[in-house]
Amino acid sequence: MIPIETLLLFLATTIVVVISPGPAAIVVTGEAASNGFKKSFSVILGIAIANVVFFALSATGIAALIIASNVLFTAIKWIGVAYLLYLGFGAIMGSAGPLTISPSRREVASYHKTFIRGFILEASNPKALLYFSAILPQFIDISRPVLPQFAMLCFITLIIDLCCYSLYAYLGNKSNKVAISPFIIKSINRTAGGLLIFAGVKMATVERQ
């Protein structure tokens, strides 16, 4: 069993990491504003499942091997960079962008496509890989059974992901209830696109620890 003080520290650390605005939050908010909260939940689920995969990799030691391998780490990093740039420029140059407030102009994708979108976004994020392989082990007591501790922390992270990103989705969905001028929508789209591009550029600078 993990000591309560360790659990509280892990809880606080993970909430701060997840709730901090980033590419995943932008995509979730945009999906909720465009297609509603229900549709955005499949994106949230994709992000959460990707983190579960990272947990599994960390538990089996594969994440450490990936970080140790320059080829694998670089491949994951540049896939993430390319995907963020694709989303960012799509938001800026596209006719709709991440926010499509007008119901008549909604671009509705299937649930499995939005799930895959969220999964790829998080799975190709090298910072997430670094977090789970470098930070997570700090909360594990190696003098006790390791797998139950990983399972508990994985469950906590899954709940945090679902709750925090659902909050972003709620805010995005609420924005759809308010009459917003096309100029403001375009400005929001371009701002979101710029943030995604900035995140992609910053991701390109991530190095192995």
TrEMBL record:
GO cellular component term, pick one: plasma membrane
Subcellular location as annotated: Cell membrane
GO molecular function: amino acid transmembrane transporter activity
Residue intervals passing through the bilayer: 40-68, 80-101, 150-171
Annotated Pfam families: LysE
The keyword Transmembrane appears for this protein: yes
Keyword Transmembrane helix: yes
Membrane topology listed for this record: Multi-pass membrane protein
Record's keyword terms, sorted: Cell membrane, Membrane, Transmembrane, Transmembrane helix
Protein's name in the database: LysE family translocator
Natural source organism: Nitrincola iocasae
